[in-house]
Write a structure and sequence with these properties.
This protein has 140 residues and is mostly beta strands. It is 11% helix and 49% strand.
Length: 140
């Protein structure tokens, strides 16, 4: 009896796994390849960060997640102050970027960067993740 239930269960699982629609696109999820998507020409001024996302991969990408880091650089690194005002945040850039193409982005960052005399902010932007689109070879 247990053997029959096991065979039926496995058959159902295999049958369902192989029943994907013929015209569906598949999404690849995996480790972020830092060389496949890069960020260039980043500028940050008055809470607005902008730049260019470049798709170096051979596939379309979408939903690029950016990590914005506002690192505080003390004027005197040997005697830093008590409160580090540095912040980090994630922002997703919508839209599809074809292979070999680029797309501009602009993010109005909501983090508070107060003017202080004991240092300055250094803003960096990196790719934290993205979705690679793999089209069905049947052209659907």
């Amino acid at each position: 009896m247990l053997y029959g239930v096991l065979v039926v269960g496995i058959t159902l699982i295999v049958g369902l796994a192989g029943s994907a629609p013929a015209d569906a696109d598949f999404v690849a999820i995996g480790k972020v390849d830092q060389s496949a998507v890069t960020v260039n020409n980043v500028t940050a001024h008055d809470g607005v960060v902008s730049g260019e996302i470049v798709n170096h991969s051979s596939r379309e990408i979408r939903d690029v997640e950016l990590l914005l880091r506002h690192m505080w650089r003390w004027h005197n690194e040997f005697r830093p102050g008590n409160s580090d005002p540095g912040t980090a945040s994630y922002h997703t850039v919508d839209g599809i970027i074809p292979p070999g193409e680029s797309a501009r982005f602009t993010v109005k960052d909501q983090s508070r960067q107060t003017a202080r005399s004991d240092g300055q902010f250094q803003t960096t932007v990196s790719v934290a993740g993205f979705t690679k689109i793999i089209r069905n070879p049947s052209g659907g």
